[in-house]
Amino acid sequence: MEFIMKRILIVDDEVNIGLLLSKFLTRNGFEVNTALSGASAMELLSKETYHLVLCDFRLEDTDGREILKKIKTLYPGTGVIIITGYSDIKLAVELIKMGAYDYITKPLYPDEILNTINKAFETQVALSTPRTNINPDFNQSERSNKTGDYPEQYVIGESTASKELLKQIELISPTNYSVILTGESGTGKESIAHAIHLKSNRRDKPFIAMDCGSLTKELAGSEFFGHEKGSFTGALYTKIGHFELANGGTLFLDEVGNLSYEIQAALLRTVQERKVKRIGGNKEIDLDVRLIVATNENLQEAIQKGRFREDLYHRFNEFNILLPPLRNREGDIMIFSQNFLKFTNIELNKNVEGFSDEVIECLMTYNWPGNVRELKNVIRRATLLSESSKIQLKSIPLEISTFAKVTAIETAVDSIHLRDHKRGLKDAALEAEYETILRVLKEVNFNKTKAAQLLNIDRKTLYNKMKAINLE
Asked: Residue positions of the PTM 4-aspartylphosphate (predicted)?
């Protein structure tokens, strides 16, 4: 089995640019090929799997628009980034609305290129299995559903909580209501937002996702509203903001509670007036954007503490969906696990068929503090480590495989605390020993050799004590 690298195809009829980009990206860990024309690019795409294409807008035999159409038709999961001159920015924005991930303006700056490419991979626009256009974070199976077909990548859970969530998506999607998605980290808020977009009348328009949690106060205005070239120090090119990119479609703002109060005020004006003006610009641009925002905190509490504007909250809160944590969706755990296994098999070119009974018991028992995201990561890791037709216990992280035993021991220790005060020294000593062994094992991620060293006992003694407390 060979791990699949992130593969990029550079399409530019200027040999020197292609060569420089290829060397730079190769040094940064990507596998890169170059093409000097649209025709040769399509030939390479027909023979090899590429996760991302960097394409100059102006080529001798075609242009970025035609290349994008062909790639999205033949290889819909492959991300496309357009390289453009300053005068082509409007065309680049048009291409983004047609499905391109982003654009980069000339002259090319290494940091900008690398940042844009990394964002493409991080947001899963360019995935490790491009020809299947996979985004398995949202919770669905390949089955069709009676309310209409979602794209293949989505999985509908069978738990009561999932069915209620589906009802809310079906209800709100056809409207233009702004939506607040509230839920713990990892519950799939972006995927739910994307599902709402795909079920709406805006499905053929852009879906633009923006992570507000990573924005600094200095960058937020430029990311939201864009800026004109030369409008401030470091503004080396004109930038189209996320509102403008999402015009006609849906703008998803993740972790909106992290925005500074100043940015909230500027955001309120744009949301109220449905107009945007780039930083340093004079022209106001009319907006037709549906807003979906997500948060893992209670925004009403943030309002009371003075961290979030109440007027902005009410602009967003035309409809509210609470996403249930995975621990409250037991009926979905194995459905999601099978789905993640399927797509990881494709990614890693493996053929793992399922899970052993012991693994299934562990997956169903664990409390999943990281929710669907944690489950996905666990399945991907276990698939990579698996050496048989089914995922075995040794491929599962120790904190998951030992969770049930640790919980039982902690419960037993707690029960000792609740006993009357007449317990003897032996009970107290045993309680302290349980707690110490458990604490040290957790600290070293259940590495028994390290635990024995820290406890100043030999491994055999540790094994015997673990056996005595049913923690083998």
From this structure: 56
Q: What is the CATH number of the domain that holds 304?
A: 3.40.50.300
Residue at 365 is within a domain: no
Tokens 């990311």, residue?
Answer: 223
Domain with 99 in it: what CATH number? 3.40.50.2300
Sorted by sequence, the CB contacts under 8 Å of residue 63 that are 6+ apart come out as: 57
Last residue of a domain, one of 281, 301, 324: 324
What total of structural domains would you count in the chain?
3
Is 72 inside any structural domain? yes
Tokens coding 279: 């930083």
Task: Please give the helix or strand (H or E) that residue 54 lies within, else none.
Answer: strand 52-56
Domain that holds residue 253: 173-324
> Would you say residue 182 lies in a domain?
yes
DSSP state letters, 309-357 = -HHHHHHHTTEEEEPPPGGG-GGGHHHHHHHHHHHHHHHHT----EE-H
Asked if 114 contacts 167 with a C-beta cutoff of 8 angstroms, the reply is no
State the pairing for strand pair 226-227/239-240.
Answer: antiparallel
The residue among 293, 324, 355 that closes a domain is 324
Same domain, 11 and 64: yes
Q: Is 379 a member of any domain?
A: no
- Tens of each residue's pLDDT in the chain, 472 residues: 333 457 899 999 888 888 888 888 888 888 899 999 888 898 888 888 888 999 998 888 888 888 888 888 788 778 899 888 765 667 767 777 778 888 888 778 787 888 888 878 765 443 333 333 333 343 333 333 333 445 555 677 888 888 899 999 999 999 999 999 999 999 989 889 999 998 999 988 888 888 888 777 778 888 899 888 888 877 777 888 899 889 999 999 999 999 988 899 989 999 999 999 988 888 899 999 999 999 998 999 999 999 999 999 999 999 999 999 999 998 899 999 999 999 899 888 899 999 999 999 999 989 999 999 999 999 999 999 999 999 999 999 888 887 876 676 666 555 555 554 445 555 667 667 777 877 787 777 677 788 888 888 888 888 787 776 666 5
- Dihedral of the CA atoms 284, 289, 295, 301 (nearest 10)? 70
Burial of 227 (0-12, 13-18, 19+ CB in 10 A): buried
